[in-house]
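Chapter summary example.
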Amino acid sequence: MAFKGGDENINRNGRPKGSKNKATQHIREAYQKLTEDNLDRMSIWISQVASEDPGKAMDIMIRLSEYIIPKLARQEVTGNDGESLFKDISFNFGPDINSESRDQDWNQSETEKF
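The structure predicted for these 114 residues follows.
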């Protein structure tokens, strides 16, 4: 049956903003149940992967965590009027490696520790 112009039963605005798609909701619920029913097995599987490749096991854990803990949005932290908060911070990791007097500079910095 084709739509007829002026039919009051036709939703011309579409789905309301923020409403859930029923199919997507069913898939999420099924995935959640599958995960909950297999938590013990998943722990064993990850342990088995970790025994052969700890990095891969960590990658699996990180990827699974995205379904539990939402990713945080990036925030830019600035001072007044967008100024950098860190403009007056400097780090000194010892004498320059190309410095001719680096051994002397290094020994001097070692004795100045507090």
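To summarize the output: The CA atoms of residues 47 and 54 lie 9 Å apart.
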